[in-house]
Amino acid sequence: MRAVLAWKETIREQCVYDLAFKPDGTQLIIAAGLRVLVYDAADGAIIQPLKGHKDIVYCVAYAKDGLWSPEQKSVNKHKVSSKITCCGWTNDGQYLALGMMNGVVSIRNKNGEEKVKIERPGGSSSPIWSIAWNPSKDEHNDILAVADWGQKLSFYQLSGKQIGKDRTLTYDPCCVSYFSKGEYIVMGGSDKQASLYTKDGVRLGAIGEQNAWVWTCRVKPDSNFVVLGCQDGTIACYQLIFSTVHGLYKDRYAYRDSMTDVIVQHLITEQKVRIKCRELVKKIAIYRNRLAIQLPEKILIYELYSDDSSDMHYRIKEKICRKFECNLLVVCSQHIILCQEKRLQCLSFTSIREKEWVMESLIRYIKVIGGPPGREGLLVGLKNGAILKIFVDNPFPITLLKLSTSVRCLDMSASRNKLAVVDEHNTLLVYDINSKELLFQEPNANSVAWNTQCEDMLCFSGNGYLNIKASNFPVHQQKMQGFMVGYNGSKIFCLHVYSMSAVEVPQSAPMYQYLERKMFKEAYQIACLGVTDSDWRDLATEALEGLDFDTAKKAFIRIRDLRYLELINSIEERKKRGENDNELFLADVYAYQGKFHEAAKLYKRTGHESRALSMYTDLRMFEYAKEFVGATDPKSSRILMTKQADWAKSSKEPRAAAEMYLSAGEHLKAIDIIGELIDIARKLDKAEREPLAKCALHFKRLKHHGYASETYSKMGDLQALVQLHVETRHWEEAFSLVEKHPQFKNDVFVPYAQWLAENDRFEEAQKAFHKAGRQNEAVKVLEQLTHNAVVENRFNDAGYYYWMLSMQCLDIARESEEQRDEMLKKFERFQHLAELYHVYRSIQRYTDEPFSSHMPETLFNICRFLLNNLTKDIPPGISKVNTLYALAKQSQKLGAYKLARYSYEKLQELHIPSRFQESIELGSLTIRSKPFHDSEGMMCYRCSTNNPLLNNRGGVCINCRQPFIYSASSYEVLPLVQFYLEEGISDEEAVSLIDLEVPHMDEREARWQDMDNELQALRMDDGLDDAEEDPFTAKMSFEQGGSNFVPVKVSRSVLRSMSRRDVLIKRWPRPLKWEYFRSLLPDVSITMCPTCFKMFHSEDYELLVLQHSCCPYCRRPIDEPN
């Protein structure tokens, strides 16, 4: 560490008591007597004086965030036991430390309350003169440095606990100041100088001696500048320069950290170990397993615990307890070498001076170049240009070279045959040590190093570039920051500022330089230092083409290429047998590399045309093979043609194959695959079934579907024709064949259904199974589809599939007497489930999706319908919570408050999802403020009874038990009453009677005409008269109070009186009976789907059909005939 004076000013006859930097470091404020002066921190120029003080100013400071605001009227004052000499806030501004004349440190909070009291041993005889908090953000605790006039420096935690022991000083300290990041302390006092300490209180050195006491010292923020203020008015600014203290040996780098620690870094494994010396580290040297550290009063020698190359555990071997002055320090296995200007001293580890060499000029560079323990060699460069080699056990230096300019850097190659020198003009000079001949020189070099693993490679750095030179090839350059200090294998060690790093440099460039000159063995040595896989392959290929099989083999082993290793092995075997034709070997190499034409030329040149023919034939390159046919045995021509035909045959080119077989004389093979088979088949008589069958089989194999179909048709083999259509997936032809020959229905529809199922077309597959009469498979497909739809919450699809399942069960019941009862029960159950899922889809969309397309009245009706029809066993996927939640919301909207309250009460009995919890609790509270009744009920069209909105009997009237008929879109109750036929009346007869529409005298109309002149045209008894006149209305009457449902049964006369427009008939297929419904409000237009028999308000149905192009329930297309 060096202190360089930046500027100095003197204020006459004034003591500088305090100074402070502006937080950005640009200005310096100084308390000098009665004046406060502002200086420029960069050059010491005074900016302005600040006036207004009438007495001596002892303390100045810049505000960072303010202690109190100007708005405060007064400042709180607190009494203390002694005079306060110094104070300081913690970094977070929460606590204030006070140093007092009686030797006490008081730590107080922002309110002035004392939290910690530290009593120093010296008491009032050791007043606390300066304190400072460590500003470091890396420390876990707040640390307070305390300096007293008992000549002690101590450190405390915020809790008052002392850190370490007191540090004894040799002077009375007047000021303590931390660097910005807390890494160092500056302290000044009665010794007339400022001193630099570590953050732990270890003295590192002096900063500028003065002529009077140093009363104050401060560090410029975020810099290494220190300003001192003295009793005689002197203000001095010093720049502290921290030099790099380090050492390097191969892959181990040791450097100084925090001035008192040494860090040893393994540059390959990136491991680091810290050695704490607790004193200023002056010099470091490292060699093999030794590490030497020079401290102010001693030198420590460390050694590694083991010989392991990656071991990082050092232990002290020796201590030399003497003070040494030296410029350079070098350590060997058993000695240390001290260099002081022209003198070199060799000391043993026991401090005995064994050798001394005095040079003719100043020593500029020294390096250990290895050797046996106790006999190591040193390479020494002098300022006068002399380069010497010194052995530790030899008193006589050996002069290697004498240059005309000063030596800056030196290194010797691994074999000790070449010497690289960088001179003071930044020129790299490489000499042959034995002949003293200059081999080459390069400009722009500041450091140089030979590769420790390769004799002919060196690297040097300069001007921001790293240069790698192999042998006498051109230099390879790449950008690099810092300068290079070592070269080991493929790693170059680079020092940038204080950081050493190992840079992995691929050795590709020098390797290719050797390859260009066919120097394969040297290229292999370079590759071993570190190149990419592609570089290894290039080396292997080049060596193989250069017929250096040994190098090629080693390179191919590196990249594990077994194919080429087999080739090299076979060539080596052939060499052992006496073959020595290099051109033939090279031809084999070219063939392996895919250079077929070059290989063929070499084969031809060496008289091995048969190998060229064999190569081209194996490659199916028959055109090239023909060039070599004439030169070989005549039989080879036929063999070539046969091989070519075999290739054409396997390549699905039957026509070309047949022609080649004919050319080669293989007539039987040609007949088997002849392209004109269709002509033969057409000429054959249909009675010749065996040849025709063989032709058809060939067509099938050759994928000629049309020819095969024609042949089977000629044979009249319909079974085979159907099989052909099915195998080739020509379904339309298969279906047209089934229409003419229904006996093949199973042979077509079953595979078709399976094919549809495999292609995820399950609905079509179900219909195909149905057509094939495979009802069980059809039902299985539908059941799987239904299950999937429920699991995936596709309730619309689930409803549709359940409806299809019910119709499937109805088909089975119609065809099978044994299963009829079971299937009819399933029909009823599936119809019920279909309607439940169809309805629940709307509720699910309302609860799970942000928008609903339904009106509140529709959702209200849907929820009531679903709850009225839900039995104890709720189907999977249907949530009672969602249904009740939707009903509660819609009831509240529509004024059905009693029903809403009932819904909320029912919800309290169920497990409610968290997303509804808040809404339901709020609704339950708000509904209690509403009246306890519903706005209106639901009227029965048979008995005119007003039914409650939610009916515990389900979807029937509470009075007459008549089932309600709902619209399948809005789920309003339709004005329909179901009636039944009296015994003996068939469905066909009933329809014919209804269609008669017998005309009768409308007395009502006559009465209206009679009363035309009177204003009171309507009388209260009109309805009774109508009831007596309409036979169906009379039939609707029933016995009041009965617990059983009394259906409406009609006779022939009643049927005859009905209008066809007022009657709707569900014409169910057998074995179900038809169902009849009478509209009581003819003006209300009702439409029934002819497929699923669901009833709709006509307007709703038309709108839905326009939206979906089909029935919303059974998905029957609008253009499909009834």
UniProtKB/TrEMBL annotation:
Gene3D superfamilies per UniProt: 1.25.40.470, YVTN repeat-like/Quinoprotein amine dehydrogenase (2.130.10.10)
Keywords assigned by UniProt, alphabetized: Cell projection, Cilium, Cilium biogenesis/degradation, Cytoplasm, Cytoskeleton, Developmental protein, Repeat, WD repeat
Subcellular location(s) per record: Cytoplasm, Cytoskeleton, Cilium basal body
SUPFAM superfamilies attached to this UniProt entry: YVTN repeat-like/Quinoprotein amine dehydrogenase
PANTHER family: INTRAFLAGELLAR TRANSPORT PROTEIN 122 HOMOLOG, WD REPEAT DOMAIN-RELATED
Pfam family, one: Beta-prop_IFT122_1st
Broad class of the protein's primary localization: cytoplasm
Protein name from the UniProt record: Intraflagellar transport protein 122 homolog
Keyword Repeat among record annotations: yes
Occurrences of domain IFT122 first beta-propeller (ranges): 66-137, 138-241
GO cellular component annotations of the record: intraciliary transport particle A; non-motile cilium
Domain IFT122 zinc ribbon positions: 939-977
GO BP annotations listed: intraciliary retrograde transport; non-motile cilium assembly; protein localization to cilium
Domain IFT122 second beta-propeller as annotated: residue spans: 246-500
Residues annotated as domain Intraflagellar transport protein 122 homolog TPR: 507-882
